[in-house]
Write a structure and sequence with these properties.
With 205 residues, the chain is an alpha/beta fold. It has one domain (3-197): Peptidase C15, pyroglutamyl peptidase I-like (Aminopeptidase, 3-Layer(aba) Sandwich), CATH 3.40.630.20. Helix content is 36%, strand content 24%. The strands form three sheets. The protein has a six-stranded mixed β-sheet with strand order 2-1-3-10-4-9, with helices on both faces.
């Protein structure tokens, strides 16, 4: 099983991104994971899309994206990616469809109920969320599905939102929930193990 596992760089006033911090923590604990390729994407839609499509062309068996969710108190397992973009990129703020001719939405093929049950049984707060928002987190999930559709391939693609770390909340001087990066790293690791334990046969769309 070859897995693409991605996170995002810091953005806005955040000097860290909890998704990347958790991924780094996972790698510190486990070392390089066989079959897993990690990436940190920029918070800029055109650049992210270019790098994402280049990575997807390498032919992964599964794709799992990670992103930061300020205000979240638990791991959020995203079910739906929408063809909606409301974000800031290098050209400024904009709102509209990610692509003019794409489907309205894509649904993940991952068994989110199984993931949630496993995480909760291991003391990691988690929930299934029914769409990944309208920003870059949603866009990376949507574009991953769209790339595979255009190439007549079907692969499991998912997205996990990660709460802020306690350190980020402390530095922000805001009353926000958080999750230790060690716990978030454990959640990511368990999900990677679950992906590896399933037999995902390559399919045509």
């Amino acid at each position: 099983m070859r897995i693409l596992l991605t996170a995002f760089e810091p953005y806005d006033n955040w000097d860290q991104n909890s998704s990347w911090e958790a991924l780094i923590c996972l790698l510190e604990r486990r070392g390089a994971m066989e079959g897993v390729t990690t990436r940190r994407y920029p918070v800029d839609l055109p650049t992210m899309q270019e790098r994402l499509f280049k990575d997807l062309a390498r032919g992964f068996d599964a794709v799992l994206h990670l992103g930061q969710s300020p205000g979240a108190s638990r791991i959020q397992l995203e079910a739906i990616a929408l063809n909606v973009a409301g974000m800031t990129d290098s050209q400024g703020e904009f709102f509209g469809p990610i692509t003019q001719n794409g489907p309205v939405a894509f649904r993940t093929d991952f068994p989110l109920d199984l993931w949630k049950r496993d995480l909760m049984q291991n003391g990691i707060p988690s929930a299934i969320s029914f769409h990944a928002g309208t920003y870059l987190c949603n866009a990376v999930m949507y574009l991953s599905h769209l790339w595979h559709l255009h190439h007549q391939l079907r692969r499991p693609i998912g997205f996990m939102h990660i709460p802020l770390t306690p350190e980020q909340v402390l530095r922000s001087h805001r009353d926000l929930p958080s999750m230790p990066r060690e716990q978030a790293a454990e959640a990511i690791g368990r999900v990677v193990d679950l992906i590896n334990s399933h037999d995902y046969e390559p399919q045509f769309a």
